[in-house]
Design brief:
Pfam families: ABC_tran. This protein is an alpha/beta fold and 227 residues long. It has seven helices and ten strands. The strands form two sheets. The chain has a six-stranded mixed sheet with strand order 6-7-8-3-9-10, with helices on both faces. The protein has a four-stranded antiparallel sheet with strand order 2-1-4-5, covered by helices on one side. Helix 6 links the parallel strand 7 and strand 8. The chain starts with a strand and ends with a strand. The structure holds adenosine-5'-diphosphate (ADP) and magnesium ion.
Length: 227
């Protein structure tokens, strides 16, 4: 039983800035990992490197044991669409499309016909507390509702890994708790692994493990027992 996703010896430099100075990290099925650390410590660079968005200068990224950091750009972007889901801080839904079509979009990009994609995407609306909001456009949703739609969209392709960069960064505390509970619960339901960047310790505490990053290196590590 290997890791779903692993990074080994990840190094990324921007000029004289070492954004990642040799990071090792692994996540398994139904595992959830929070990445915490001060601003500029390399959290987003780590998440984007694991997600195949940034190529490391050194080290490897393995998805179920297969290297992805050396894939060509076309294969890598196809892999990201099929096997990864993404939730960002905000503003990543298409404003002109109703919620259910935003959720269906990753499936349509994979060639699933529109009606089937919408039907498959709809299964997430009830578990995420979004029933009745299928036809709303993002401008007609609250911040928490919009993030729940983004979670549904990330899960639509049944990804191996869900990546979330500050998914509650624009939400108040109560809504943050709701959203992170649904994110961790729904991701675990699908069997996917979750990698989440957050600066909020209460949000991180919903993950099974917390990685502390400082100056591009792991500075601490803790493990929680999920109730
Ligand atoms: N595209 C880039 N070009 C130059 N420097 C960058 C770039 N992306 C990140 N950095 C630098 O790398 C370091 C880590 O950045 P980042 O991973 O975004 O930190 P965090 O997400 O923890 O705030 C910072 O010093 C940042 O300025
Ligand atoms: Mg960041």
């Amino acid at each position: 039983m290997g890791a779903v996703l692993a990074g080994h010896g990840l190094v990324k430099k921007y000029g004289s800035t070492t954004a990642l100075g040799g990071v090792d990290v692994e996540v398994g099925e139904r595992d959830s990992l929070a990445i915490m650390g001060p601003s500029g410590s390399g959290k987003s660079t780590l998440l984007h490197t694991l997600a195949g968005i940034i190529r490391p200068d050194d080290g490897q990224v393995l998805l179920r044991g297969e290297r992805i950091d050396s894939l060509g750009e076309n294969r890598l972007s196809a892999l990201r669409r099929k096997r990864f889901g993404f939730v960002f801080q905000c503003g990543q839904l298409l404003p002109e499309l109703p919620a259910e079509e935003n959720v269906a979009l990753p499936l349509m990009l994979e060639g699933v016909p529109r009606a089937e994609a919408v039907a498959r995407g709809r299964r997430w609306f009830a578990p995420l507390g979004l029933e009745g909001l299928e036809r709303r456009r993002p401008g007609q949703l609250s911040g928490g509702q919009a993030q729940r739609v983004a979670i549904a969209r990330a899960l639509a392709v049944e990804p191996d890994v869900v990546f979330a960069d500050e998914p509650t960064g624009a939400l108040d505390q109560r809504t943050s708790t709701e959203v992170v509970q649904l994110l961790t619960f729904a991701t675990r339901e699908t069997g996917a692994a979750l990698v989440m960047v957050t600066h909020d310790a209460d949000v991180a505490a919903h993950c099974g493990r917390v990685l502390q990053v400082r100056d591009g290196r792991i500075s601490g590590y803790s493990q929680f027992t999920i109730a």
